[in-house]
Structures are given as C-alpha cells and as structure tokens.
Amino acid sequence: MRKTTSGGGQPCRSRIVLGLMAGLLSMAVAMPAMAQVTPPNLTVCEGVTCENLPESVCSTGGYKITLQSFTPGSGTTSGSTSYTYEVCSPPLGVCSGTVRNGEACSDNSFCQKQGQNEDPSATCSRQCAVDAFRGISHFDVTFPELGTSACLSGTTQGQVTGSCAISVNTSGSASVGSFDLGDGSCFGTPGNPEADQVAKCDSTTLNPGDCLTMTVNIAGETNGLGLGATVVVDKDANVCNASCIAGPSCDKCNQEPPGSQCLTKTIGFWGTHPWITNDYDPVTVCGKRLVCDGADDGKSDPSCLAGSCTSIMEGLGSVGGELPKNSAYVAFIKQLTAAKLNLNATAALFNGASCGSWTYNGNTIQEWIAACEGDGINTFGVCTAPQSTVSGSGCIEALDAFNNSQDTGFTVTPSPFDRPPVDDHDNVSGADPSQFTKAQGNKGDTKLVIGRSVPGGISCP
C-alpha cells in the first residue's frame, strides 16, 4: 500500500485503538477466575511514521492480521468511513531441526521436543509462527476516544456498526458469532468508557487455514477519519500484547486533496470480472448505452452477456478482425468502455471523485473523452471517423495510458477490488472470461462492433 506523509514524516499517533483479543479455547490454558490481566501497551505506535506504517502484521498470538480495505467517508456529519480487517490462522507449517524434522506443526514448541529428545533451535515454518499457539474466541475493536475527537461528532453509540464473517473456511468448521458492541476484556470492566466502546466479533473458531473478516463502519464525521497508526492487541493467557498497524485515526496519514482519488483497471480486468463490472454500469460509449442485463448465471447477478448492441462485454471484448477496415476504431471503443467504467467506479467509491489530477499530454481524462467522442456540433471526435483519423487522433494512446495508470489518492484498495475473485454470491470463483471471449466473434459467436456495421455480422449503428 502506498503511504503519504502527514506532518513531514512525523509519527502518526492514533486517536482510535484497535484491539483484537485472543481468548483461550483449551481448559488446560484457561485463566483462573480471578487472575489479573496485564493490559496492552498502547504506546507501541510511538515512533511509527506514515512511511513505515504496516498494513499487515503477525500478532504475538500467531495470527496474520491485514487491513484488507479502507473506504473513506465524505467528511460530513452524515458520512461513514469503513475499515475491513482480515484475521487469519495461517496454514500449518513444517518442523526444522533434528527432533521432528518434516512433521506438520502449529508452533515452535512442538518442533523442539519429542519424548526425552530436545532441539531448542528447531522452528516451525508456519507463517507468523510463535512459541506457543493458542486458539481465539473473539476479536474486538475498541474506540476509546470516539465522541471526543475533533474529527467526529456525536457519541460513540450509534456511530459504530459492522459485520463479522468467515472469509476462508479451509477446515470446513470455521465459525463466527454476531457483531456486537461492548467488551471489558483487556480494557477494564463493563461500565468503564473504554470497555463499553468496543466493537466485537464474538464466538470465533479459526482452525489452520481459516480467516475471519471484520468490517467496521464509523459514522458522524466532521473533518473525516482516515488511516493512521492503530494498536492491534491479542490476548495470550492473561497478558494482552500489542503491535502497530494501519487503521482508524483522526491524525491520518492519507492527506490527499479531496476528490483526488482515481481507481483504474484494465480492459482485461473489467472483461473477466463481470460481478464487479455490473456494479458500475451503464456506460455510454459514442452515444451507445452499454449495460449488464442478463439473468443471474450463478456468479454475476445480473450477468454481462455478449451478443447484443447494448452489451458492455461487446464494448470491452470486440477485436479488430471483426472490422478489418477500421480495427483502430475497435481498439478505441474497448479503451473508451474501460475508461468510462473506471470513472464510474472512482465516483462511486470516493464521493464523486473524477480522476481530475490525471493528465496525458497536458489534458485531463475528461478533456480527452470530450475530444474523442465529440459533441456532434462543435467537435466531432472519432466515433464516425475512418481508420486513418482514429489512428492519428491520439485517443487510443491517451485512453490506454489512463486505463493502465497507477491508482492514486488512496492507500488501501477499496472493496470489491481488494478481492475480485469473490463473486456476487460470495464464492471464490476466479476470473470468468467466458462472455469477454464470446465478444470476439470467433468460432460461430456473433460478430458485432458497438456503433458500426460488421461484414457478415450484426449492424449496431
């Protein structure tokens, strides 16, 4: 994730503390009823700057915790900022050393002793391996300063909502309870302000290879929440250990100018992820309205079918061979369709942002589109132009540069672009190029090009 500096690279101190508490599942390691809990060290982010602020950490409990996506709010009292974390129990590793070499392992201790034999230097190759791995019963996110910070309005209650879900269930037995507010573990007893201001995913079971997703939405902004240094806590026996990760903060690192965000994906991305493409249609390309309006196909709802003059897949997937005398026009339509989808997605995800900071040869993307499409009165563009005009216009090159440009103005890729293989039915489906390929008009598939008549195919004037 790209970081921007706030305050000349000075530490970004969190005003909101994120706690991920690891409860114990085994009676053999359960705390005594009256055992004193050591609180987490909430100063671990001191000295962390925007340049070295991590988006993913291995907790001291042995879990991989990642800020999966961040969606900024509008910066108004009616705005809402969203943070999604994924917490994974890494797959089992393999022991090194002389005692259990090659055996599957969950922690280092297992690898170091077998009967009377010991190898203190042995380790487990498991990601985020710790000496003693323990199970987790719940995850908490705490907000001790909500309602008092200058970037929020109102009180904590009613400002925090969210959801808990199992995102990866490799073991087949992963489970998670409901999203709730309030928990006294690690931060005091119920009734104390810090203990009450907690968002929790309760009753969690994660076996090796399983992952939990927690999404937290914070409403009531005035100056706008952002990403800054946030404390991550896991509970190991009766000790609450802390580490530092990117997360909710009023002292934010992402100090991008309002509206400067720009999310760009390629023609291929839009063509092979119809369940995302259908979120950002329709687009109008050379005066033709293109949509996804097919029946639910089990992955995409609605599906994005090829074969019609209103098909967004035909806009993205047609090939020059379908229009041999003006293959440049086909390339132009493909790039224009993708560019319009990128602009729609950027506006939807970032409160109307328009990629205004992007330029090519001194012109913004809006200026390029206006010149290339034309208005039919003062400018005529290339929508009805012959091959030589389209090729020499610079439109293909400009749109291609835009669609292949680097995302700007945000630090974490927003949903649904953070995990594109997850389709409209929440299944991990992988890319689906079927309709994108059909739009090429090969092997008996319908030949058509948006806005033109195709020899031996369908006319879409």
Explain the overall architecture:
The chain is α+β, with helices and mostly antiparallel strands and about 450 residues long. It folds into two domains: about 190 residues, no CATH class; about 170 residues, no CATH class. The protein is about 15% helix and about 20% strand. The strands form seven sheets. The protein has a five-stranded antiparallel sheet, with no helix packed on it. The chain has a three-stranded antiparallel sheet with strand order 8-11-10. Strands 4-5 form a two-stranded antiparallel sheet.
The total beta strand count reads 18
**Overall 3D shape:** elongated
How much of the sequence lies in strands comes to 15-25%
Query: What oligomeric state do these chains adopt?
Result: single chain
Helix content: 10-25%
Number of domains: 2
Structural class: alpha+beta
Q: State the distance separating the first and last CA atoms.
A: 44 Å
Strand-and-helix sequence, N→C? EEEEEHEEEEEHEEEEHHEEHHEEHHHH
- State the helix count: 10
Cross-sheet strand order for the largest sheet? 1-2-3-12-9
Q: List low-pLDDT spans.
A: 1-16, 20-34
Radius of gyration: 26 Å
Overall pLDDT level? 82
**What's the main sheet like?**
5 strands, antiparallel
